[in-house]
Amino acid sequence: MASKIHCDIVSAEKSIFSGEVELVVAAGTEGDLGIRAGHAPLLTALAPGPVRIVTEEGHEDIFYVSGGFLEIQPDIVSLLADTAQRARDIDEAEAEQARQEAQRELEQHESAEQHSIALAQFAEASARLRTLHQLKRRR
Amino acid sequence: MAAGKEIKSQIGSVKNTQKITSAMEMVAASKMRRAQDRMAASQPYARQIRKVVGHVSKANPEYRHPYMQPRDVKRVGYIVVTSDRGLCGGLNVNLFKSVMRDAKQWRDQGAEVRFCAIGSKGSVFFRKYGSSELLAAKSGIGDAPVTQDLIGSVKVMLDAFDNGELDRLNVVCNEFVNTMTQTPIVRQLLPLTVDEPAKDQTTDPSSSAPWDYLYEPDAKALLDTLLVRYVESQVYQAVVENIACEQAARMIAMKNATDNAGNMIDELQLEYNKARQAAITQEISEIVSGAAAV
Hints:
The complex is a heterodimer of chains A (139) and B (294). By secondary structure, chain A is of the alpha+beta class. Chain A has helices at residues 92-107, 112-138; strands at residues 5-11, 15-28, 31-35, 42-46, 49-55, 60-65, 68-73, 76-81, 84-86. In chain A, a hairpin with a 2-residue loop joins strand 7 (68-73) and strand 8 (76-81). Chain B has helices spanning 2-58, 91-108, 120-130, 147-162, 219-293, and strands at residues 75-81, 112-118, 134-138, 168-176, 182-190, 214-216. In chain B, a hairpin with a 5-residue loop joins strand 4 and strand 5 (182-190). Chain A: This is ATP synthase epsilon chain.
């Protein structure tokens, strides 16, 4: 059985990654997914969080996505991210600051709408930090 | 020498115009490069989502989204992407011609048409043409469009489709063939079509047994958002491509204008020289005949 699976990661702005990989780990809205070749066709929405890919040589790469869609065919994975960036491009201080700001907003929200916006911002900021921590742990 | 002076001032004014057009040409050239980069950058997403939606429409989903079901066409909607500014040759005119040709075909079949104009040239045209057929208009997108700007007018058309006011939705924009050529095209957005040739024939599962995706969370919520995102991304791609076309067309139009101004100056210069020569000749003959009389 082929152990390779073709993976395309695109964001609205550009193509982030395209190539053969062994394993893709992504955060779906219903939980984390690990995908290898021969996976059943699946379509899911993505939650903000890290996406990890392992290439054939065992080399690992981690990306951050802010949400989007994931489509799985037996040997193709297409990841349509709203925004995506390589984990090592994330500025930790900035992410931490964004998280704190979102938390502050969350505590002093006035309307339900503001609350949900703050909640989404908080989720994104903490997902960014989680991505960074995962990157550090791997090293 | 009265005629000579007039011609001289005319040459001056043509020269000024030439300066402006050549400056516009250079501005358009640099903007075109950036617009092309932007077009190339957003292409992977548009292509990928088209591929995914192509797969989805080939699957046998438990839930048939209204966007996937072909309907009897009673009303056709067009999202017409035009430029905000003129001076870009026949770009918009050609686009309107092809829209009108397509719309006429539907009218002949007894269907009505509705328009959504993106870009101020489009809204002006359709307002003049018949405002009752214009559902939404959006202008002032600028050189670097963002999806948020387009969502509003796209939503109007999607809502109309959802309510059954539209049975078919097309997007019309100029296709960037190369710098010299831009061709207007009409693309069908909804209901979904599977005219995309499958690039991965070997892995195409539709050839075998009927199949379906696993959906997480559930098919309805997922397809709703995916298909709306699909339409938005296709419209965004059309707008970005049209901007690249606009700049290319403007560059060519301004290059032609500069060249024509050059020719005009040459002609005027010739005329001026002739007039000057005639005046001198006349003066000499007056002097000679005056001397002969003495």
